[in-house]
Amino acid sequence: MSARAYSSLAPPAIFGVGVLIAWESVVRGFGVPFVILPAPSAIFTRFIHSIPILAADFVQTIQGVIAGYVIGCGAGLLIAILIDRSQFLQRGLLPLGNLVSALPIVGVAPIMVMWFGFDWQSKAAVVVIMTFFPMLVSAVAGLASAGPMERDLMKTYGASYGQTLTRLRLPAALPFIFNALKINTTLAMIGAIVAEFFGTPTVGMGFRISTEVGHMSIDMVWATIVVAALTGSAFYGIVALIERRVTFWHASYRQRDA
Amino acid sequence: MLSPLAINEKAADSARVIDIADLSLSFTTADGPVQALSGINLAVERGQFISFIGPSGCGKTTLLRAVADLETPSAGAIRVNGMSPQEARANRAYGYVFQAPALYPWRNVERNIALPLEIMGYPKADREARVARGLDLVNLTGFGKKFPWQLSGGMQQRASIARALSFDPDLLLMDEPFGALDEIVRDKLNEQLLRLWDVTKKTVLFVTHSIPEAVFLSTRIVVMSPRPGRIHDVIECGFPRDRTLDIRETPEFLEVANRVRHGLREGHSYED
Amino acid sequence: MRIERALPVAIIVGALIAIWYVGAILMNTPLQRDFFANAGRTDYSAADLALADLNMDRPKLPAPHQIVAELDKTVLETAPTSKRSLVYHALITLQETLLGFAIGSALGIGLAILIVNLKVLEKSLMPWIVASQTIPIIALAPMIVVILNQFDITGILPKAVIAAYLSFFPVTVGMVKGLRSPDPLQLDLMRTYCATRAQTFLKLRAPASAPFFFASMKIGVAAALVGAVVAEVTKSEDGGLGARLLAGSYYGQTVQIWAALFAAAALSATLVGLIGVADRIVSRRMGFAR
Question: Where in chain B are the domains?
Fold first, then answer.
């Protein structure tokens, strides 16, 4: 990493460490009850001692996340390409897509449990619904983003619809598609965890949080939250890295290097 | 000064690449119909360099696009190589160069030049040979692996010219290709384009705003005037083929340039 | 023009409703066949089966008219003060959402203003705020509800707190983007006038951020609603649409679940729609009109 990268990481890192130190001191100094706010050191201890449980929770939840993410994003992209040739379908489906994106879709979790059972499949179903619409809307916008000049160029080559789609409009749509892929990582995590609040076999991050809250084991709750946070940011980070490699040519990257 | 050639000349003239007969084109806009072109008559022979000059709104770009089958005429006829513009486009009869390079940022220069070749189904070895030749023609050898944003504006535009020539069309349509570049780069590219034309013997239709550019490059200059777009004047230009930019100081050059300027004024080009 | 825009949507919605009915028949048939078998009926026609499918007590997929009937029953035919009324629960959720949204967006806008003006805050805080968007912070909801209960803070307030912090982050990020959106050229112009920070803020940054403001508000209010609903799932004794969803799933009352879901969706769409209307009015007056 370059010196510039280090110097931009320093302020937030210092801030974060500062918060942790303040947290620890306040809890110890003011004798804050354990059930309200455990000290970071206590959470860390609990974390280390509970790794098997946390790992099992992670595996359970991540199944729903990944399965739902792949199906939801894939379907969104596929439908966007399928309705690409029909202005009518686009004009009918896009307003609906925008509408659904604003709705509290996590609420369908109990219905999904009814259809797919208690296990991770119902959580994956919730994630599919949550990730489908943002991808659909973004992919359609991306496919429309290729400029008129570039499209005219393809016309002068006598290119077919398929050739124009694969060589121009899909590559041009990639920045939009990746934007949705990044947003969807968070939506997928939220969907899976909240769906588990509604009911799940005795394993899973959402399950762990809601049960341990009932037992007032707040340090365990925090440990699970740490796992969820790390998973969420790692997931996002991986997608962002792939985005950087695939859309290296996009203006937003060049501005930084220029 | 020659008047616009009539279509009634020998139709079997095989040297005639483009025939435009009584072409009219109107657009429907939010403010009502706009007559972009009205009663255009023009014949272009093989190997000529025709410039179209006029103010914004005189229809020169529309005319070029109509020849390229990117716009549909409302009346009249265009023949390109004896075919309709639609057939000509399907036959890949021309290369088009836009005002902006319109290179794909996710392809390096080589792959950009190869784009039309991929679409038209040229085999790989052939593509590579043509790309190399194209780079050489525009003096970009060695820059093939670079990406468009790593090149200057002038180099990008040269790459787009190489792309337009890669599949060897007889006809080159250029819409203000050097308009976005500064004058020094523009001068160099004018010279290069002239050499290119001399070497490859293409027929070129060239739209421009710049009088010196039109006079320097062309064998014939078509002066257009707006509202509705029509041909005001056609001026023959007979400068030697091995000319350099120095010719712009000569009295003969200035005389032609003045005629062009006069024509633009007469066509009410400088109003509002 | 409006009709041109509405027609495709209307046709698609109509098609979706038709597909829904077909889906209801397909999904409920196995269960309905079992019912018929248990009741000893063997002489039913396909039409009988279809009709029964669409009017089951606890269907796998309720038909649209069943949901409408349930909505009618719990909204129009029940007093809004009764715990059976969907309006009662919706009002609870609405209060939590609005309170949380107001707090969250006020804090978010305030922090955005501070961040834009103080470089120190920007460098140390912004990365965390941006990173928080990658973390499922909704996982904190159950814990916060329980902790606040320890302090005897119950009812609407804990849910509002969760709604607040869910709307806080997108509002902050959006407003920072908006307040930073003016062209550097315009900022330079202000410098040539020797404008103070406050003047630059009031006359340039704030108006320029209007589009971002409304976009953030829409996202924020939707997030606040989700927060309220999820918080209610955690502590359902205090009512609300989330509690209703949970109750429906516990007792297998499918139609109740769907009705509550529709109510939540309608609430969300209305709130976002109202902001959209405000957006259009303000944009037109400010010349941002599309």
Answer: 104-168
Q: Are residues C107 and C221 in the same domain?
A: yes
- Tokens matching residue A141: 């916008």
pLDDT tens across C203-221, in order?
889 988 998 999 999 999 9
- Whether the CB-CB separation of C249 and A87 falls below 8 Å is answered with no
**Residue A131 gets which letter from DSSP?**
H
What phi and psi, each to the nearest 5 degrees, are found at residue A68? Answer: -65, -40
Residue C80 within any structural domain of the chain: no
pLDDT tens profile B210-252: 999 999 999 999 999 888 888 999 999 988 888 888 999 999 9
- Domain match, C100 and C52 both: no
The amino acid present at B188, given as its one-letter code, is: K
**Mutating which of B80, B96, B205 best tests the A interface, going by the most A Cβ atoms within 10 A?**
B96
pLDDT band per the 50, 70, 90 thresholds, residue B13: low
> Does B touch C (3+ CB pairs < 8 Å)?
no
Tell me the three state secondary structure of residue B34: strand
Domain containing residue A107: 38-257
pLDDT, tens digit, 9 for 90 and up, residues B74-106 = 999 999 998 999 999 988 899 999 989 989 989
- C242–A107 CB contact, under 8 Å: yes
Q: What does the alpha-carbon distance between residue B151 and residue C171 come to, in Å, rounded to a whole number?
A: 40
Residue C96 banded pLDDT, cuts 50, 70, 90: very high
In the structure, what pLDDT confidence band is assigned to residue B24 with cuts at 50, 70 and 90? very high
Residue C69 domain-assigned? no
**Are residue C56 and residue C95 in the same domain, yes or no?**
no
Q: Do C128 and A15 contact (CB within 8 A), yes or no?
A: yes
Task: Considering only the beta carbons, identify the residue of A150, A159, A254 that sits closest to B119.
Answer: A159
Domain count, chain C: 2
The rounded radius of gyration (Å) of the Cα atoms in chain A is: 23
Beta bridge partners of A107: none
Do residues C27 and C49 lie in contact, with contact meaning Cβ atoms separated by under 8 Å?
Answer: no
**Domain ranges, residue C6:** 2-61
The answer to the question of residue A75 being in a domain is yes
Interface test with A, best of C230, C234, C236, C270 (most A CBs within 10 A): C230
Buried b (16+ CB within 10 A) or exposed e, B226-265: bbbbbbbbbbebebeeebeeeebeeeebeebbebbbebbe
Q: Is A103 on the interface with C (CB under 8 A)?
A: yes
Nearest-CA neighbor of B118 among A166, C166, C207, A119?
A: A166
Percent of chain A with pLDDT over 70: 97
Please tell me whether residues C44 and C150 are part of one structural domain.
no
A190 pLDDT above the threshold of 50: yes
A64-117 pLDDT, tens digit per residue, is 999 999 999 999 999 999 998 888 888 888 888 888 888 888 888 888 888 888
For the entire predicted model, the pTM comes to 0.84
- Shortest distance between the Cα of B82 and any Cα of chain A, in A, equals 18
> What is the count of structural domains for chain A?
1
Q: Is C198 left (phi over 0), alpha (psi -120 to 50) or beta?
A: alpha
In a domain, A241, yes or no: yes
Q: Among candidates C139, C147, C166, which has minimal Cα distance to C226?
A: C166
Strands B32-45 and B16-29: antiparallel
